[in-house]
Amino acid sequence: MLATSKDIVCDNVVVSLHSAHRENPTTTYPQNAKFILSPPIQRVSSVSVLGVQVPFAYTAISQTGVGSLLFRFNAGGSERWVNIPAGNYTSATICDVLKTGMDAYPGAPYTVTYSSTTMKITISSASDFQVLTDPKARDIVRLLGFHEDSAVSTSVTGDHPINLAGPLYLNLGCEEIGRYQGEQYRNSGYNIDDGYYIIYTLPVNVGPTGIITSSLANPVPIKFVNKHTISTLQFYWWDDLRQSIQFPLDWSIQLLFQTS
Question: How do the domains of the chain map onto residue ranges?
Answer without folding.
Answer: 11-58+167-259, 70-157
